[in-house]
Design brief:
alpha+beta; rod-shaped; 3-stranded antiparallel beta sheet; about 170 residues
Amino acid sequence: MSRITGGLVAAAVVLGIMVGTPGFVSAASINVSPSTVAPGDNVRLSGDILANGVPGCDVTGTVTLISEAFAGLGEFAGVGAVNLPIDPTGHFDSTVTLSASVAPGTYEIDGRCGGGNIGVSATLVVRALPPTGPRLDVKLWIAVASILVVIGLTVLAITRPRRARSA
């Protein structure tokens, strides 16, 4: 093999490794932080609209993130959605507040811009709100109710008029 051919093969191998290495080629992304929240909490949504290092839509526009978790915040094709601004480099980074009525569950978040799907998704978990108010001890309430029933029956027995005996 000649030096030129060997050099070309080595360059092709290096280029192949660089192109095939994750992170070298940018891809669109959606990041959610925190990934587990309660209804009514704030969620930071960030990422980019890049596909192979090139914006997948107009960088002066918005990205629409679509999820049932965004019900009440906006809508896209009948599903909850938020529209976030895209900066000149193709990135977005905004915080949204979920509706307090969002049901607990695991939600998928998809993205669209420029009339097309950005091809990635993220997951958001909405947990149930913790119970509020005083904690009721059922055994205690049963004991109190039982004592009240006994007291009530005793009072009835004592205050019940007695019939006079006939001789």
